[in-house]
Amino acid sequence: MEARYRGLLEAAPDAMVVVNQGGEIILLNLQAEKEFGYRRDELLGQKVTNIIPEGFAERLIADGLRSPADALAQQIGTGIELIGRRKDGAEFPIEIMLSPLESSEGILVTAAIRDISFRKDAERHLAQMEARSRGLLEAAPDAMVVVNQSAEIVLVNLQAKLEFGYRRAELLGQKITHIIPEGFAERLINDGVDAMSRQILKGIDLTGRRKKGDEFPIEIMLSPLESGEGILVIRDISVRKDEEKRVARMESRYRGLLEVAPDAMVVVNHGGYIVLANLQAEKEFGYGPDELLGQNMQNIIPEGFAERLLAGGLRSVGDALTLQIAAGIELTGLRKDRSEFPVEIMLSPLESAEGILVIRDISARKHNERLKDEFVSTVSHELRTPLTSISGSLGLLAEQWPSELPKSAARLLAIAHTNSQRLVRLINDILDIEKLESSRVVFNLSQVDLRSLVAHAIEENRGFAESYGVHVRLDAASTDSEVNADPDRLAQVITNLLSNAIKFSPAGGEVLVAVEKNGNVVRVSVRDHGCGVPDDFKPHVFEKFAQADGTTSRQKGGTGLGLSIVKQIVERLGGDVGFDDAPGGGTIFHVELPAWDDTVAEEVDLGSGPGAIRILLCEDDRDAAIVLRKALRRSGFAVDFAYTMSAGVVRTDATRYAAILVDLKLPGGDGIDLILQIRTNAHHRDTPIIVIAGDPDRGRNDVRSSHLNILDWLRKPLDFEHLVQVLGVALAPQQPKRLRILHVDDDHDVLALVTHALRSTADVISADSLESARRALATERIDVVVLDIALGADSGLDLLPGLRDFLGNALPVIVFANNGAGVPYDGQVQVALSKSSASLDRLREEVRDRLALLPTRPMMEVA
Q1: Predicted TM-score of the model (pTM)
Q2: I need a labelling partner for 542 at 20 to 30 A (CA). Which of 200, 335, 420, 559 fits?
Q3: Residues 6+ apart with CB under 8 A from 100
């Protein structure tokens, strides 16, 4: 028996200690050694107070006040909590349970000692949690009330007292109808806390009543507690209701503005369906009132709109609709009578993920453009060709037979030849300016020796200068400089500047031309000694047909287009043109172009890997651009450079970039101007554009930027990791959108239950009538429809013809009705369930099956 007892003692999970009447330890197990840190021989014979200092010996050891029998009578069967002390002096909480043991030595006591440190920690943690919960309850900004299943208030927080004007004691034990008179208590008693919490998990709007009797709008949410009670969160929504009224007034004003707008305006949802149209849209497209509502935009703009703004093989509906077309795109509109007319459309997104389209009839503008094109064609073919022939013939006569003609005839011939040359120059200038403005001039850039080109231009114009009695000289200090330019167009620039200077120089005067290099810029200056530019004319120098002497008797010839052509060519070459008053009289016109260097050849990034994503960086700081290119290469990007605004236009015209980074300060214009031009390019209407600037707020606050679809505004010095993250998100394939179910039922309880059952599967849009269902179909993307048949006096089956997606395909329908089992299946109604026999789990399974059969949604790719 003793061996068996010792075996049980050693195998016990708790520390076991046997104590005699003198309070001495006479036996202990291995767990006791471990728990108190002693060896067995160190504890045997020791007083139990060595390991349990207080509370144990007093109960079990006889003293002067009680006998051993009395002490033993205080045996503790259920355990008491005391403090144990280890050999190292560390104390820890214990629970001991005692039992008497008869032996030859007399009555002994066996103590089972359990370390309850973990339990005590848990109790302290629970106490802290409870204190925090009470603190959170009291500190909550909303009124919080706990109610039992009889709708009686059992707990309230401070905010509930303040909101309803009661003392805490006045509310406890009262029916909830004291503060929420209608709509809650009845349902709580009838349905119970659990059922009702599922119905109003997202909150319902009711009316609260304060102690003084005044009522105010509230929103309540109910959550069940394990005790069977429910905790009500009650929010005063007076401010929200006032805001809703204000929004309603704003919407009324908005509708009024929409109706009086001179252009056609339509609001389009993410499926491309029209949800709102103004009177001008109905007139322009020939439709009656409300006939446009619910129609797809392709019915009035058949081509070009869907490819840009609706879902297709490259992007999703939601992303497509966020694109903004600030400068407008030209498409073809289709009237109700099937007649077509040219339109320009501009799109701005609304906060509701819809977009408002401004559609302008540009028939008159197109007519004028045709007239202009016909005029240019007439000038080019019907005037220039014969004039060139006439001028050449007159020049031949004037050169070869002047001595054979009478002096008066020779003089008339010379005048005719001069005027014919002026007409040829006028026609050439008109054609050049028209080509430049329409971006039809091709620039063939190459390395150009600017000093040699200027010297050649001077020689070409020497005869013209001699006819005015003017001497043209190249400054001997001019340096040999090279630029990246189109030599023919640059020669045209120098020729126009020389012509202008020669005409405005006095007879016997001199025109001085100089070429100088300042760092990375090469300047060509042309100085005349004329009368200078009048102050009131200086702002108009580079305008078309601008001449300082605009009278019919002006002495200087010219078309007034030469300097305008100079400005457009120089800016396309990435340079600047200007003028200054010359010391001592006259004017100095100057052209500045970027100097040729090794980095020009590297503007196109040829050092990145073949799979790199190509982006464009528009930045005038070349050193900063190179540093950023090196960093972005490591992240898989190839970075092309554009150091000027005109270079940015040229690069985006020639290349389809995945993304574009733009600095706001660029030679030739600011970054916003560049982005406006980029957005007019069909290839870059929806290209992600990121602005990088020292002060991005300057661009963000520019009124023009609100319609430019800027992906992000980043501040210098640049956070490179953030830039890579933004690019990664913008260029990553898009994940499929969460699916949507339209549930049509006039029973609000059923709507709430189905929403709760299906919300983990898809987003549920509830409609309680045919009207609200049609409105949801017009404004939301729907994938599957759950349909009740009996909708008051209406039938849900009347909706079937209109249950179509944005491509016109029939939506799959699940009938969920009281008599649903009798509805026949067809290609659209794929299953019919009865509310009385089919569970919500069965409905959820059928919905999942229908969703699983839907075609995969397209993913967005980057060109």
Answers
A1: 0.38
A2: 420
A3: 72, 75, 107, 108, 109, 110
